[in-house]
Amino acid sequence: MKKDQMILGRRGVLRLAACLGVAVTARLLTAGEAGTPGRPAGPPPAAGPDVPVPVPDMPPQGAAGPPAGVGLRPSAYRLQPMTEGAPSGLGRPLPPVRRKPFLELPELGHTMVLTFDDGPDPAYTPGILRTLRDHDVRAMFFVCGEMVDVHRDLLREIADDGHVIGNHSWSHPQMTKLTRSGIRGELERTSEVVEETVGAAPLWYRAPYGAWNRHSFELGAEMGMEPLAWTVDSLDWTTPGTRTIVRRVLDGAGPGVVILSHDAGGDRSQSVTALRRYLPRLLDEGYRIAVPHR
């Protein structure tokens, strides 16, 4: 081989190596610019009907219940966390174990959160969905697994409308009276049926009766869920009358406030009618109705 051919061959190899180096570098830079799935890449936008509220690092002060009993064998759901099998870098990090639930969500302008418990119920949930749809706002529905199991189409409707679905246990027991394994079963069964129905497990949970304890916080975090309580209880479950429910919601309105209402668990016709009355008044008063972002 001639000298000039050897030099040309070496130059070709060097050019090829340089091209490969540029390509690899460009790939790394592009990957570095990608945002974490489920989280905004930049600062959060201003709140609006479809704009979620960011979650702070720690919840406000509130009371937690006493510890529950000793747990038993972990279930299959516990051994297969939601991040298992996901591509590297795409798994959602588990939240920290809280000692108190969120009682309100961070102030972002004049923003409030509406939540509905115990459903879905075909007698009342559709009426609530129609009102929310009429005003183009999103809410949170903390569902019971046994209700989801027999009304899956209704849960799909909730999800299709863009509402946030939370875990409210399977059969609505008082968590502080259950063993650790009992709490696990209530939360896991509900997360499983929700995921089977709408393709994603809940990222929020609420203890029935607001009865939280250490085990419920630990198990909720293991399943990737944050605990949310409420700021204002409309006490609609007592059927005090539509006007009373409306007054309680409007009197308790404020930035970051979480309103508790119900769409199941009894006669909720007053709750459906009350929402039609207080929601437009909240919007007229300048409040935005939003859902939390995780």
Structural key phrases:
294 residues; alpha/beta; six-stranded parallel sheet; 9 helices; 39% helix; 11% strand; globular
Write up what this structure looks like:
The protein has 294 residues and is α/β, with parallel strands linked by helices. Helix content is 39%, strand content 11%. It is built from 9 helices and 10 strands. Strands 2, 3, 4, 7, 8 and 9 form a 6-stranded parallel sheet that branches. Helix 3 (125-134) packs parallel to helix 9 (269-284), helix 6 packs parallel to helix 7 (214-222) and helix 8 packs parallel to helix 9. It starts with a helix and ends with a strand. Mean pLDDT is 78; it is low at 1-53 and 58-90.
Please state the CA-atom Rg, rounded to the nearest Å.
24 Å
The mean pLDDT is: 78
- Profile the largest sheet: 6 strands, parallel
- In percent, how helical is the residue content? 25-40%
Strands, total number: 10
Strand content: 5-15%
Shape: globular
Order of helices and strands: HEHEHEHHEHEHEEHEHEE
